[in-house]
């Protein structure tokens, strides 16, 4: 009998996973609301393409810079308190954004600095959540659990911009940051009340520097992890072009309204959620490299379509399909790296994975923003699409994701 796919909702049968997943959903909602509001605010402060694209760089760069220490801390400290601290940090930054905007002191450089500070919360929070997932569900349910994490990310990507757009158009951008602060504090309180919160696996005490070194050493010795890191860096370097330049697409091609920006952003999130439902069957039909290649091809094609389309409905469809491609690609890469990491170094390994992801995203946003400044957003999107396909074909051909038996001992 052929293997039966694990239900996409099976991990939600576990109470602690449901609670942690719900907390992550709210945290992601705050992140997307803040990023959307910051990107939109930048178009009113400095409409140059590079400034607008740098908002995406500022939001993602902290994960690249702080990935190693945050992953080591997540493997060493009490994970509940660590998550609560990150939520309090996010609430504080949101209030600062609100105060500065209300006081009329906001400048492009200050907005980038505060967006960077908000990204610090993500940099500290993400390795903890990534390390928790394999401890909350049985191993056969891990791909489904990671897909649900992707649903969380993309449900928030769907709802966050829509909610932020509604608040901006009716009350003002300041309301977005107030709501973010309230949601962050509420999530912290829920985490404090959560019982049976899983702790890191017991081991001998480590100093921070030693823990970081051990994590780096493991990745250097694991050919499989290095292959996944290269793939995710290549994908996000190119795919971030579409997200970073979307405000310019709305301003220069459509009506320039915040609601239109929210709608297109939401279509991408909706497409990713739809893809999560069919992922179990896709995983049975194709191996992970095949899924990655198909996801890259679809995302590149839809980026090119956004560059060429002058019809809102067609652009919405392209954004939805790009979201589906994003989900398929990122889930395949996430499963690969999770299965390659042992528990003792999981948070550190996932933080390095996130560094590759966010480093590629931050660099890509700056590069493609500069291309858009020198030429146009259309040229930038088309070049990113063509380059993505070529780079991933080369990566898949010459850097194999082998399932060799690495030495995974501490």
Count every beta strand, where a strand is a DSSP E run of 2 or more residues: 0
Average pLDDT, rounded to a whole number, is 81
Helix count equals 13
Global structural class: mainly alpha
User: What general outline do the C-alpha atoms trace?
Assistant: globular
What is Rg?
20 Å
| CATH architectural type | Up-down Bundle
CATH C-level: Mainly Alpha
Low-confidence regions: none
Instruction: Give the oligomer, counting copies of the same chain as homo and different chains as hetero.
Output: single chain
**What does the main sheet amount to?**
none
Whole-number count of domains: 1
Relevant CATH superfamily: MFS general substrate transporter like domains
Explain this structure to me?
The chain has 13 helices and no strands. Helices cover 82% and strands 0% of the residues. It is globular, with a radius of gyration of 20 Å. It is mainly α. The protein has one domain (11-195, 207-398): MFS general substrate transporter like domains (Growth Hormone, Chain: A).
